[in-house]
Amino acid sequence: MQVMLMCCIDEGRWQALPAAERDAVMRDYGEWVADLERDGLHRATSKLVSSPAARTLRLQNGRAVITDGPFAETKEQFGGFHIVECRDVDEALAIAARIPTLRVGGTIEVRPVEPAA
Questions:
Q1: Partner residues linked to 42 by β-bridges
Q2: 70 Cβ partners below 8 Å, 6+ apart?
Q3: For residue 36, is it within any domain?
Q4: Domain-embedded: residue 117
Q5: N or C: lower Cβ tally within 10 Å for the chain?
Q6: 3-state SS string for 6-25
Q7: Global confidence as pTM
Q8: Tell me, what CATH number does 53's domain have?
Q9: Long-range Cβ contacts of 90-95 (<8 Å, 24+ apart)
Q10: CA neighbours within 13 Å on the CB side: how many for 51?
Q11: pLDDT in tens, 69-91
Q12: Is 36 in a helix, a strand, or coil?
């Protein structure tokens, strides 16, 4: 099964970290992805630009309404994702538990990908 690991973090908190700490987290991320690739579990990874670049589209009274910013008012922003191949959700949770941003306040949503029909 494929599982998406959606990575969220408070962008302000991330930017407030010392540059050396952010660099260490990102270096560890590279090693984490390399481990997944070596084990044949990695399918895709992408980092998003910061949330002010987001635009949100909704329909209101049949008309498209576009607003600046992320889709919801939250303290954390969606920063990137990974798609991994797993036996089950328990394996996905174990993989997600190793994501380096967790140690600096990140949150990971683990959600199975709907198989294509």
A1: 84
A2: 51, 54, 56, 77, 78
A3: yes
A4: no
A5: C
A6: EEEECHHHHHHCCHHHHHHH
A7: 0.85
A8: 3.30.70.1060
A9: 92/3, 92/5, 95/5, 95/36, 95/41
A10: 19
A11: 766 566 778 888 999 999 999 99
A12: helix
